[in-house]
Amino acid sequence: MRPILLGIAAAFFFGVTFLLNRSMDLAGGSWHWSASLRFFYMVPLLGIIVWVRGNVRPVFQELRSRFGVWFLWSSVGFVLFYAPITYAAGFGEAWLLASTWQITIVAGSLLVPFFYDGNDKQEAKGKLIRQKIPFKGLGFSLLILAGVGLVQFHDANGVNLSLLLHVVLPVIVAAVAYPLGNRKMMIETNKRLDAFQRAFGMTIASLPWWIVLAVIGWVQSGPPTSGQLWQTFLVAVSSGVIATVLFFQATDLCSNDPVKLAGVEATQSAEIVFVLLGEMWLLSVATPTLLSLIGVAVIMIGMFLHSYFGKSKPIEKKPMNLAN
């Protein structure tokens, strides 16, 4: 149950991202700065946490020895996750982004066959043991997505090609990239680093991309405003540090159990609830319809079922030929 609670707590702090990114866009802020500033702030914030815990040296040792691996999966897990999210904030309301983001629930389950039990190097009698899709958990994920669909249905008439290209498609890319990058780095570090160290290392490894985005933002829009500097700092603290670390800790607790891991990723559906309430309060959006509230209830039921049945024993492993 602890991983589920950590996942819900992470969802609350992740929700701040959607609200503040939308707020910054409405105020005329550049999405390039909204994306890059968050990670510039995260370097000292996470660095202080790791330094206080006395764990800085192992991070830089890992980065020096395998920077290519860190750069690759940090680019996937952080850059392809957050750059599309901030870009999409300029074209759709926060609740639309947050609800579309729930595709990560199904994506996390469908990514399971791309990983081997334990780690990518494990062998058993000359065969690699590949994990199987947790179909029980996937069924509950689909239930959650059905609730998300109900939440969006009242505004379905507003969905057009532009919205599909500028909101739905970028968020889908982010929804797949985040669990993929997170899981790959979890495997590559093989528990040598804790959640704080891994988040710190991935932030450093992704810095070249954020510098590029900052340069583009400066050329196109000039320096960030004081309001954008302050709001991106709040995003960095709440979402970039607190939520990221909580989510990493939750996934670490069940990294070898695909059912429980899918359950943790399913808790991110709570973001839609937090964002809906926050957007009604801070950005004065319309009150959700009855259909939307039913959708929220379906989401919560799906989360409960994921949590309850996630206590079952791990799915039976299926050996796979090395040649496949």
Number of DSSP helices? 14
Radius of gyration: 19 Å
Coarse structural class: mainly alpha
Quaternary organisation: single chain
How would the global form be characterised? Answer: globular
Which segments are poorly predicted (pLDDT under 50) over 5 or more consecutive residues?
119-125, 312-324
Query: Helix proportion of residues, in percent?
Result: over 70%
Mean pLDDT: 82
Reported for the largest beta sheet, the result is:
2 strands, antiparallel
Query: How big a fraction of the residues is strand?
Result: under 5%
Task: Explain what this protein looks like in three dimensions.
- This protein is mainly α and 324 residues long.
- It has one domain.
- The protein is 73% helix and 2% strand.
- The chain contains 14 helices and two strands; from the N terminus they run H-H-H-H-H-H-E-H-H-H-H-H-H-H-H-E.
- A two-stranded antiparallel ribbon has the order 1-2.
- Helix 1 packs antiparallel against helix 11, helix 9 (195-205) crosses helix 11 and helix 12 (258-266) packs antiparallel against helix 14 (290-309).
- The chain is globular.
- InterPro entries: EmrE.
- This is Drug/metabolite transporter (DMT)-like permease.
